[in-house]
Amino acid sequence: MPTTIRRTRRLLLLLLFPLLALAAPPSAASRHDYGDALRKSILFFEGQRSGRLPPNQRVRWRHDSALHDGSGEGVDLTGGYYDAGDNVKFGFPMAFTATLLAWSVIDFGKSMGPELGNAISAVQWATDYLMKATSVPGVVYVQVGDAFRDHGCWERPEDMDTPRTTYKVDASRPGSDVAGETAAALAAASIVFRGRDPSYSARLLDRAISVFEFADRHRGAYSSSLRSAVCPFYCDFDGYQDELLWGAAWLHKASRRREYREYIKNNEHILGADDSINEFGWDNKHAGINVLISKEVLMGNAQYLESFKLNADNFICSLLPGIFHPQIQYSPGGLLFKVGGSNMQHVTSLSFLLLAYSNYLSHSNQHVPCGSHSASPSLLRRIAKSQVDYILGDNPMRMSYMVGYGSKYPMRIHHRASSIPSVGTHPAHIGCKAGSKYYLSPKPNPNLLVGAVVGGPNLSDAFPDSRPVFQQSEPTTYINAPLVGLFAFFWAHPGNV
């Protein structure tokens, strides 16, 4: 055999070795109860609810909160979700959470069994709020609560006495990013409710159309208009262009109107569809745009959008273990890792795209070309499953990173309501600074926020389980949202990996 051929084969084996390891049959330790994980991942959202809680609320240690939100502006802004362990309602990540929950139901709802109703309720708790936040034409309310004052306190949402300041974008203070994401969420949700509540679905789509028109007509980043309020918490670091394409993509999927298809094609390069294609999260939608639009290409319905599929293929290749990419790493224990805080948000959102794309490829009988070899749909599913299994306990710490799942999980999560005695057990008011003793306590949280997935371990697979280390111990809605679809699929298809 010629030397060059031997070297080439040796290189391919080195590249493929981690992939072959992922292809091995699962051990007994990795056979998880994905149905239980699905139920708990949805239950978590009930613990994040703001506003007046319904009679069927299952997280009973939570109570009504923030019942006067928006009153200073003469609008009703009650409801919605607290994004993480604080008591502010940030519209940007909430809208992204709603979009991903809706996408989970659209693609994997048939696999959710008895949990489908709860997943739909989780979507509607967000969209009911987003409809309120967009009820004034030409205005999108994007935040409720003074984040700096809120972060200076450690108190239950039921007790909070910090200012519930409202922040909005309009023609004079544009916010195409948060408005574009809101339009995407409403459009995606309209698909969820199309056959279940046609009237609500139509209202969601109509509102999505008007909000997108506002976002496109008055272009600008909300973190420029409202920098002092939204930065550094949910500052838009990657620009508003991706949200405009993202909103148009979901509007096209929901409405099938030619104008949105033409918008995507005409603005593909202007709005930078090929930028940062291995990013996907509340701030950067590029990889999600490419995967979402690629479904049309793979189905043979939009060959003129082939460039989006090429971008999606490149994104998928960048995630394969053993193929070097400067922004993607894997920990020694096998966890996908991107530099920055709350790594688990990247793990769950990128794994969701791997799974979604694998299904689109399977239906079109295609693979992903990655240099001199190709990645099969089953390989993409195995990589996604390896990340899900890591979260549920197949990791060097031998712990689940989902609260309430398994025998060992985080007990001191960075979450105000979870860490302070509930109103039911401690009815007296606990003020802003009075909660500090609970924040600093080494004791486990008194209220179990079942289903919460925390920021996770560091690149060395170490996890301190410490409330003050918020980058690793804080749960967020946008960590959990992609997991709903992932758990549903692996629950319904235990052998399809």
UniProtKB/TrEMBL annotation:
One of its GO terms (biological process) is cellulose catabolic process. Residues 1-23 form the signal peptide. Keywords: Carbohydrate metabolism, Cellulose degradation, Glycosidase, Hydrolase, Polysaccharide degradation, Signal. Its EC number is 3.2.1.4. Residues 34-486 form the Glycoside hydrolase family domain. It comes from the Eukaryota. The keyword Signal applies. SUPFAM superfamilies: Six-hairpin glycosidases. PROSITE patterns: GH9_2 (PS00592), GH9_3 (PS00698). It catalyses: Endohydrolysis of (1->4)-beta-D-glucosidic linkages in cellulose, lichenin and cereal beta-D-glucans. The active site is at H414, D465, E474. InterPro entries: 6-hairpin_glycosidase_sf, 6hp_glycosidase-like_sf, Glyco_hydro_9, Glyco_hydro_9_Asp/Glu_AS, Glyco_hydro_9_His_AS. Belongs to the glycosyl hydrolase 9 (cellulase E) family. This is Endoglucanase. It comes from Acorus gramineus.
